[in-house]
Design a protein that fits this description.
The protein is mostly helical. 71% of the residues lie in helices and 0% in strands. It folds into 2 domains: 66 residues; 71 residues, no CATH class. Helix 4 runs antiparallel to helix 5.
């Protein structure tokens, strides 16, 4: 039954997502349902994929699950915990110091965890350049306001 946990999670998540999608506010101009179309398509797609995934795993339900053993071996637990900690730090810093600097810190920290300190110059360059290009693209080129 462990095999069915993730497909059921995706199915439940997609159902909740679809319910929340239909609670979005209607548009005051043009088609009032326009803001619902894209999120509804994503939710329906996620639901369909979850159902397909469920039936694929249902066929293999009697087989042993070997994939979980890899989660507790080697560097994997450190990578998972470090990523979660960095995500929480990112969400805490995002509103306080803005998109650009919080993204640099998050991406830099993640790169240092994955690549190690030996590639410090590469990690710093990637985090700074990626963050700046992303900020510039949204803020200046697309005129999207970022915190």
């Amino acid at each position: 039954m462990v095999r069915l946990a993730m497909p059921l999670f995706f199915i439940i998540t997609s159902i909740v997502y679809l319910i929340l999608t239909f609670d979005l506010t209607k548009s005051r101009t043009g088609d009032p349902n326009a803001p619902l179309y894209f999120p509804a398509i994503i939710g329906i797609f996620l639901l369909i994929m979850g159902i397909i995934y469920f039936f694929q795993e249902w066929k293999k339900r009697s087989e042993a699950v070997e994939e979980f053993k890899g989660l507790i071996q080697g560097r994997t637990p450190v990578l998972i915990i470090s990523s979660l900690v960095l995500i929480f730090i990112y969400t805490f810093l995002f509103e306080r110091i803005g998109f650009l600097f919080s993204t640099m810190i998050f991406l830099g920290g993640l790169l240092f965890v994955v690549n190690g300190i030996q590639k410090w110059l590469q990690n710093i360059l990637i985090s700074v350049i990626f963050s700046f290009v992303t900020w510039y693209s949204f803020s200046e080129l697309l005129n999207v306001s970022l915190p």
